Amino acid sequence: MANTKKERALAAVRLLRERYPDALCSLVYSKPYELMIAARLSAQCTDARVNIVTKDLFAKYPTLQSFAEADPAELEEIIRPCGFFKTKAKSIREAADRLLHVYGGVIPDNMDDLLTLPGIGRKTANLLLGDVYHKPAVVADTHFIRITGRLGLTRNKEPAKVEADLRKLLPPEESSDFCHRVVLFGRDVCTARKPKCSECPLSGICPGKT
């Protein structure tokens, strides 16, 4: 058993790398701004549903300009299955407009500027920094918070505090990939209600196993 938080974190990084060698974001996109939009839609919605919606969405609006100029009612109707469609449509249009007129159509490469985009919080900003720019990033989503808590790596539940705790423990160059692996792990093994501890590759380091 790894005794310290740092030892458990490093062991988890290694074991999940072995279990999921291809650490890919589950959201489907081909352009950086599409990842921003897909991530916005994923708030309180499954990635699987988002991917269904964005297939048609990105076909109808093939450029950032087209999103900025989108008819609100038409955009709302397309993204309706993702929930909170009025709020999401408004922030998507406003974020696209800001990207065009403030950042020259390019996703910013730093946290401060990303957080000026409507609808973008730290979780999505970290996702963009990690996947678009391959910078150290900790995406503290619900899977990540649950699993790092079970591993005894943090006692916090607030995303920003979990992010801060894990930045101290994870190798910076592996942090983004580790977050993607944790999502996969949280879906097929360490589920919220019935974790499959007998099948878990982390059972040897997990103080919270049942």
Number of helices: 11
Give me the strand/helix succession: HHHHHHHHHHH
> What is the helix fraction of residues, given as a range?
55-70%
Largest sheet: none
Question: Could you walk me through the main structural features you see in this protein, from its secondary elements to its overall organization?
Answer:
With 210 residues, the protein is mostly helical. 56% of the residues lie in helices and 0% in strands. It has helices at residues 5-19, 32-41, 47-60, 64-68, 72-79, 85-102, 111-114, 122-133, 142-150, 159-167, 175-188. Helix 2 (32-41) packs across helix 3 and helix 9 (142-150) crosses helix 11 (175-188). The protein is elongated. It starts with a helix and ends in a 22-residue tail after the last helix.
Quick recap of the structure?
By secondary structure, the chain is mainly α.
Note the main attributes of this structure.
mainly alpha; 210 residues; elongated; single chain
